[in-house]
Amino acid sequence: MLKLNPKFIPLAVTCCLFFLLFGIGAVQFEGFGSSRVLFNLLSDNAFLIIAAVGMTFVILSGGIDLSVGAVIALTGVVCSVLISQYQWHPLVVFPVVLIGGTAFGAIMGAIIHYYKMQPFIVTLAGMFFARGLASVISEESIPIEHEFYNQVAAFGFMLPGDAWVGTSTIICLLVLVAAIIVAHYTRFGGRVYAVGGDANSAALMGIPLAQTTIRIYAISAFLATLAGIVYSFYTFSGYSLAAVGVELDAIAAVVIGGTLLTGGYGYMFGTLMGVLIMGVVQTYISFDGTLSSWWTKIVIGLLLFCFIALQQLLVRGKPR
Amino acid sequence: MQNQSAQPVLQLKGIHKIFPSVHALKGVDFNLYAGEIHALLGENGAGKSTLIKVMTGVYQRDGGEILLEGKPIFPNNTGDAQDLGISTVYQEVNLLPNLTVAQNIYLGREPRRLGLINWNKVNRDAQELLTGYDLDIDVTLPLSGYSIAVQQLIAIARGVDMSAKVLILDEPTASLDADEVQSLFRIMRELKARGIGIAFVTHFLDQVYAVCDRITVLRSAQLVGEFEAATLSRSELIGHMLGKELAELGEHKPQVKTENADALLDVSGITRTATLSPIDIKVGKGEVVGLAGLLGSGRTELCRLIFGVDKKLGGTVIFNGKAVNFSSPRDAIDAGIGLCPEDRKHDGILGQLSIRENMILARQIKQGWWKFISRKEQEAIANQYVKELSIATSDIEKPIEQLSGGNQQKVILARWLAANPSLLILDEPTRGIDIGAHAEIIRLIRKLCDQGLALIVASSELEELVAFSSKVIVLRDRNKVAELDGSDINPQRIMQAIAAS
Fold first, then answer.
1. Which of A6, A130, B145, B196 could form a disulfide with A74 if both were Cys (CB 3.0 to 4.6 A apart)?
2. Do B144 and A185 touch (CB under 8 A)?
């Protein structure tokens, strides 16, 4: 008997799917199956991976965070204003925005817990608030001009096979490793799964619900802010209408990565695979050259349907 | 019993708990000694679960003292109580189905190395711990894959391993089979030998006598007394639990209806695969047929089949001399049948609607919505039944959810009586209602049957069935296993029929 724990099935499916898609591309197009393409997937999607990792914590706990895209935009705007208009050094700006972002998430978490509100509504409000604040600060796109910024964004090294490892890739991999450790090797990680499994039972087992919920949303907002900083490395600007809908991409990646939307089941590594699957579809379409890039959305939509159907099957098949 | 003179490990003195609508505990004492199994008994609504919630910090007491090893404690939540050494295992196991067995046991206190959880140690320790409970299972698999019985033992193992001095078992045996109960008892005795004080809540008196040293009985939010199990007879115990009122009721011999009475309802071979094997049941006019059996024996399923809630897959039903085939409750209502469902809150009352509106429902449905019952007539009906069934309310326009369980049940009864049925099916009519109302409902059932109404009453309380049934049908594992009448209707015979295998 193949000893595959049923909880690993969605993750296994996700991994197989990624390698299948990558394999198809590699067979069809010259240069597709290279480490360069693989690492470009990482560096192009670094900000999404970071945001999706935060989203994974939230979804594992049975919640949702719709404020992610807006927080990314707000981060970009605040960074560009502080650096370009107020001449702050980026090394001062980064901690300031990260602390601010984390506090924003903690407040949302506290409201969700203490007022027993739906995460959907609270983070929707957070989304409007962050997006609105970004637009109030500046409706125009503000360029970021700072020597240090250019250096950080240009930093990186080449692996064999033209594989570029830049600042974004490094940050996103560090975040991923840290998230895997937190989720699977700390007591806090256990609490996240516990709350997602059954918050009522978790409370009866002595899990501090308030602290856990607040931390989860603080982490998500911290990572969204970090994703915002990484995003500004691509654009060298802050714009209030940037990253619209990124929260939905992140949710899609988490679900395709095998995490159950109702919480309690899933893996950080699956989220990486989820983002990479979305990236590989995008890459395939750009290699093909004739397809509209909107096909990416259609494929993602179909994949989402399939994965939700798969989850339903697994949930129903569970003995009670 | 050891060390009667010693100080109890857990002592509750004069505990009061007041909810907005009800005084749930009126100065209750409870003494639990180390190394004893102490049964906490009482009917539904006696205050057992409130008392337990006060001990475990789910509720905060409004008066009295809790002493743990002589020191006053003030648990604010279950986490506090756990830290102090009071662990609870609930009937509906409160563990996390999505985590592994080992994770469940060590959640929140996983052994760490260099700040990170040492999963090898977690799994090894869990495996070792469970071996002590004769559980040889793979602790790295999700909890959801194991039976309730195993989950319960895992919950106990978790509770005890968290250095429990006091273990509270809240109806742990309700969903276990006989073998599983025996292994639970073995574990309980072992824990007792280790000096843990165990408070055991159950509805099964056999189990009380099988494992318990002492018994504390609550009734109507008050302490009745603390007794030694060895010297308290079963009938005395039942007397303490039910109080005088019901105990006296139970002594009345039921009216024995003659078998040749015209059968009002004649069901033969009614069945629904997977939920009920073919069953025959005959009900005559003015007869009360009791349905006995444990939870899940098929009582509720049978009631639903007869009433047409579920579609029968075989068998015939003859009602009032005509072969009928109900495809929905509506058909059954039109024919003159009513059903008071088991889950009153969800299937019975319409909480936001008034007593009057709840009462006229069945009658209105029966006569069709286009023949609207006038407001005046509605009020007349409501007032009549409030008086007739002595429903305690000042106002028929009060939302029904503000009434006590017993009064809600009476309103539901009135709902059907207003529709003038010839057969009423009552599924657990006394579930979750207080003792006084309990006796009243039983009197009401008798009165109705004297008036010529036929009733089918499903109940898990044997004394109750004995008090009014002219015939008792015993179900076990979705099969009819016995039909008792005359002098055979007594708790012992019914119990035997339920228990025999």
1. A130
2. no
